[in-house]
Amino acid sequence: MAGPEEGHEFSFLAPAGYYIALRVGFAFPIAEHNALPDAWVERYTQQGYMLHDPVVRWLYENSGTARWSEIDLPDPRQIMLQARHHGLLFGVAIACAPMGSEGQRSFGTFARSDREFEAAEIRVLEGKLRRLHEATAPPTNLTRAELEALSMVRDGLLLKEIAARLGVSEGAIKQRLRSAKGKLDAKTSSQAVSAAVSFGLI
């Protein structure tokens, strides 16, 4: 996910911890990195706080940046108060959202224990997150025929069944899958299918 340079930069600017989710689809991100305190992650997960977290709600509903102190959303489970006991006193939420209603968003939440984030620090974090968001963009060069073949592989059809259904040779299907694997940086057809599904292409 984040390379060594980005990880160091995030840790330097957010010494109390951070969480990044890239290209969040219907349910899961295609990549994520959780560098928040282990004890907080364990409690957060066990209590199912994500569904009630005002910061997470803001990240899903907005684009741009907001300090935690600026997020005025209900917090009936007092998640923000509990986070303070784990050194997460100050934070910023950053969301990179698609222009339309469709598409995948990336977001991050970054924490400090000593002071509010400065505007310049927020700009650096936003730039780093946006670069990761763009680096994990789905390929746009897959053809309709390639996506059709991947969809049929996903549905469990054999090569000869796909070829028969599409009225082409098995060789043509193999070529479509080979091309799709190259574009999706996948070694096998199953990896290509997984990648295409995670990107929301099929």
Describe the 3D structure.
- The mean pLDDT is 90.
- The two termini are 23 Å apart.
- Helices cover 46% and strands 16% of the residues.
- It is α+β, with helices and mostly antiparallel strands and 202 residues long.
- The radius of gyration is 21 Å and the shape is elongated.
How do the helices and strands line up, and which of them pair or pack?
Blueprint: H1 4-13, E1 17-24, E2 29-34, H2 38-46, H3 54-61, E3 64-67, H4 79-84, E4 90-96, E5 105-112, H5 119-135, H6 144-154, H7 159-166, H8 170-183, H9 189-198
Antiparallel strand pairs: 1-2, 1-5, 3-4, 4-5
Helix pairs in contact: 6-8, 6-9, 7-8
At a glance:
This protein has 202 residues and is an alpha+beta fold. It has helices at 4-13, 38-46, 54-61, 79-84, 119-135, 144-154, 159-166, 170-183, 189-198, and strands at residues 17-24, 29-34, 64-67, 90-96, 105-112.
